[in-house]
Amino acid sequence: MALNYAKTAETILDKVGGEKNVSGLTHCMTRLRFVLKDSAIPKDAEVEKIPGVIRVIRQGGQYQVVIGNEVSNVYKELLKLGHFEESTGSSEGGSKENLFSRLSGFIAGCMTPLLPAMLGCGMIKVVLTLLTTFSLIDKTGSTYVILNAAGDAFFYYMPILLAMTTAKRLGSNIYLAMVVAALMIHPDITALLLKGNTTYFGLPVTAATYSSSVLPVLLIVPLMGYVERFADKVCPSLVKVFLKPLLVIFITIPIALIVVGPIGSILGNYLASGINLLYSKAGWLAIMILSAGMPFIVMTGMHYALIPIALTGLTNMGFDAILIITMFCSNLAQGGASLAVAVRTKDKDARSTASASGVSAIIAGVTEPAMYGVTLKYKTPMIAAVIGAGVAGLYAGIMHLVAYSMGGSPSGLSLIQMIGGTGFGNLLNGVVTLAISLVVSFVMTLVLYKPEVKEETPEEIVEAPVQEKRTLVDTIELASPLSGDIIPLSQVEDAVFAGGVLGEGLAIIPSEGKVYAPADGIISAVVDSKHAVGITTDTGVEILIHVGLDTVQLGGEGFTLHCKAGDKVKKGSLLLEFDMDKIKEAGFPVTTPVLVSNMVNFVSLKTTDKKQVKTGETLLTIV
Prior knowledge:
Elements: H1 5-15, E1 22-27, E2 31-36, H2 44-48, E3 55-59, E4 62-66, H3 71-81, H4 99-111, H5 115-133, H6 142-156, H7 158-170, H8 174-185, H9 187-195, E5 198-200, E6 203-205, H10 215-234, H11 240-281, H12 283-300, H13 307-316, H14 323-344, H15 348-364, H16 368-378, H17 380-398, H18 425-448, E7 476-479, E8 484-488, H19 495-498, E9 504-510, E10 514-516, E11 521-526, E12 532-537, E13 542-546, E14 559-561, E15 568-569, E16 574-578, H20 580-585, E17 592-596, E18 605-607, E19 612-613, E20 618-622
Helix pairs in contact: 1-3, 4-16, 5-6, 5-15, 5-16, 7-8, 7-10, 8-11, 10-11, 11-12, 12-14, 12-17, 14-15, 14-16, 14-17, 14-18, 15-16, 16-17, 17-18
InterPro entries: Dup_hybrid_motif (IPR011055), Glu_permease_IIB (IPR036878), PTrfase_EIIB_Cys (IPR018113), PTS_EIIA_1_perm (IPR001127), PTS_EIIC (IPR003352), PTS_EIIC_1 (IPR013013), PTS_IIABC_b_glu (IPR011297), PTS_IIB_1 (IPR001996)
Domain PTS EIIC type-1: 105-460
Membrane topology: Multi-pass membrane protein
């Protein structure tokens, strides 16, 4: 059944609130991009039921309706229905996303690829905690040492792994970023900084510990990107291969150790002083505020600044009423919120991640999987966790809950550390605090978290015509249109491409800014923003080459087209040039998906096994 473009356009416009709610409209190769005055009006599930609509995405302040190859036809019909200004800005009256949304999106995007390793090590810590709690292994034995190292491995070396994902997200050299992060946690550097009075070419270096920290890497890698681009411009081509990395590392070292890295330590010192002052004046308020804010303190690594306070309390008074208690409230709240997400979501992968993260936080006190993989990612569960932790902290502060010993990361099993004093009153308060933290965060998440669920009504689903599979005598080979590193679609940081919504294929992180025709054919589509090209080959394969992610927002800046719709091209013809530095400087990844959008006409597609490819080499084989 052919798509009725006019009807689809009319229905979409109605569902997004009509012309009066649209302050801007444009389109890219596959999506309609609305800028809405009130983005709360459209109901995603209803829009996704419209014939021709593949998916709805709220991203970058835009309401994006994924149509696929027919998007230009639907766009033309929309222009007939109203007078729309082209815009790539944000919704809500043209304002950009708030700082928290952008920051949390960036952090979650950098942390999400690390989830498998994070969850695995977190669950090792859970197992180890259970084994030691029930005296099933000896803490002095080799088994304990090995399991403990396995559980700590990810968290200790997290700055190196995070440097890799951050650099990849920003389009910087991941190996240089990893070297800078490795320097910051190198045992010799750690020992040197702990001695104090450290200098670098006469400049003072603040004593700090960077293992397990997040903020220093998230700050230094973007700055390293600017250093990298500077080095690329000033280095002569003849010596660039070794001079560029030398300059990047040499210049970034003092920035990391003297400027950026110590920020967390300096803020931590001020935090510790403020906490002592606040606790002496209003202990209950201090515990409540710290419990609520602990996720963000842990995120920056500043919770290490509280350890001396805890040790001082345990040594001088025999108990700690600050660090262990506030982390106890916060960690349990993260667990409760994650479990609530597992209950609410319909996505199997999200449920699995949330369940494991919740168990890890509650039993072992390892909250990174919950924070970066669940609560911060979906935003409202983080709000619920903050509320739950704050309420639990308020109760703990009023009842003067304390811990009489320091063990691993505070968790549900930390109730053991609350046995002491006179009678079991303190332990009872610990149990109540645990219950408050879990229940409040769980219930608040159920209230606030609205999982995106695509509801389908059978009678409204328009089935695509079934086309006969083509039986081929010979296979069809498509050449690579770019040179660069190959990654699977599943690793592309865009749900539409990663989910295979627009077709099968792979993605290339280009090493040069040129796109060539992968086969003989006709240019079937180009867009005004020049960042994508569609080709229909002489063998009937429909190919989409999409340079960068969300690069439509550049409005064609940095792109030069060498073809137009309807042109006949030969394999190897130059189709498009793009300025990689300009795209990266604008904050967009240069990752380029190469897709076959009409695989329904064929039997199977095989991608090359190579990790790197050069222009003209076989990239895809179709049967």
